[in-house]
Amino acid sequence: MTDATPAPDPRGTVVLLLASSTGGVGQHVRSVARGLVEAGQPVLVCGPAATDEQFAFAATGARFTPVEISANPTPADARAVTALRRALAGTDARVVHAHGLRAGLVAALARPTAPLVVTWHNAVLAGGLRGRLSRLAERVVARSARVALGASADLVDRAAALGAADARLAPVAAPALPAPRRRRAAVRAEFGVAGDQPLVLSVGRLHPQKRYDVLVDAAARWRTRRPPPVVVVAGSGPAYLSLAARISAARAPVTLLGHRTDVADLLAGADLAVVTSDWEARQLFAQEALRAGVPLVATAVGGLPELVGDGALLVPPGDVDAVDTAVGSLLDDPGLRADLARRGVARAAGWPTEADTVATLRALYTELDTDPPGALGRRDAAGRTGPATSGTDGPSTGRA
């Protein structure tokens, strides 16, 4: 061990648990694992093997144990609970920190002896039986966790309303993107974008919650613009076939790129970024766009307004006309685009960094080392306390 390497924390191992993920939650857990390990904290990541293949948690210095938790409830959840119990039995767990409702439910059912922390990354949008089951799971998770962390204020209020004894705001910082590896002209050439054509970019999972149908319908109107913009969407997911059919039927100038690992390059080539989701907390792509100085049009939902402030143009969700108008106003006015880009960069400069996020979690874990159950009050990320309940006990308006 060198002088620059911290000694392992003697208080035990932080267990990070997540369900199947291809995007933001997996990136966040990897970022947290890396930061904790660099600070000398032993870390065990538990989650699906396929998620580990994508995010390579062991490369951060953490250990990894497979616990297969799918994105949706299945009979295999009982095996996941057993697998987690087995993993915890062989670990000197200091705290179990589950990320997301699915992981939080498995952790709650496993009943760990170490304190349970659950980060609420998403809210529940689904209706019908699935929605009712998800809201029941929310209640179980809220009441089982020593601390519920919400990635946005509405999630904090939701957890508190459902009975969380200690609900706090803990914004999720987007991992810093690497520098672009290609020049702007090379990125645009890949998609056949002429010199005077705008390139409009969106990045995210192809899921109904992202409402890419709104973007496609708006883009269909842009065929008549001169020059017409090129619209590309990076991401994979279950809505691919329906979106491809919609693009074809509407003759929209939209290309589905599939999963991409070069988001920094795509942003370097883009003139405009668009988010059309029905709900987001602190969406990673919105953070990436503002940091990169790409003007952003986003829906005023969930935590997005508090995230972007005046650094983006906000539109109502599900409103094709509003998206069309906002994008058109920016495409028609280079000065407005430049001003919005400057405001976005300034807004992003005030966000918590990955290091800030890790420091907040380390402080929480230390607090849990010394505070008995029930002694913690509701606090935000800065440590301010407040009432342990707020909001209303009704259905949330976010995504599953």
Q: How do the strands of the widest beta sheet line up side by side? A: 3-2-1-4-5-6-7
Helical residues, percent: 40-55%
Radius of gyration: 21 Å
CATH architecture of the largest domain: 3-Layer(aba) Sandwich
Low-confidence stretches: 377-400
The total beta strand count reads 15
Estimated share of beta-strand residues: 15-25%
| Average pLDDT taken over every residue | 90
Reported for the largest beta sheet, the result is: 7 strands, parallel
Number of alpha- plus pi-helical segments? 15
And the CATH topology of the largest domain?
Rossmann fold
Q: What string, H for helix and E for strand, traces the elements in order?
A: EHEHEHEHEHEHEHEHEHEHEHEHEHHHEE
What is the number of independent domains? Answer: 2
* CATH level 4 superfamily of the largest domain: Glycogen Phosphorylase B
Any idea of the CATH class of the largest domain?
Alpha Beta
| Cα separation of the termini | 44 Å
Shape estimate? globular
Helix- and strand-based class? alpha/beta
How would you describe this protein?
This protein has 400 residues and is an alpha/beta fold. The chain has two domains: 13-173 and 353-386, Rossmann fold; 184-349, Rossmann fold, CATH 3.40.50. The chain has helices at 24-38, 49-55, 77-89, 101-110, 128-144, 153-161, 184-190, 212-221, 240-250, 263-269, 284-291, 304-308, 320-332, 334-349, 354-370; strands spanning 13-18, 43-47, 63-66, 93-99, 116-120, 147-150, 167-169, 199-203, 230-234, 254-258, 272-275, 296-299, 313-315, 378-379, 385-386. The protein has a seven-stranded parallel sheet with strand order 3-2-1-4-5-6-7, with helices on both faces. A six-stranded parallel sheet has the order 10-9-8-11-12-13, sandwiched between helices. Helix 11 links the parallel strand 11 (272-275) and strand 12 (296-299). The longest helix is centred in the middle third of the chain and has 17 residues, at 128-144.
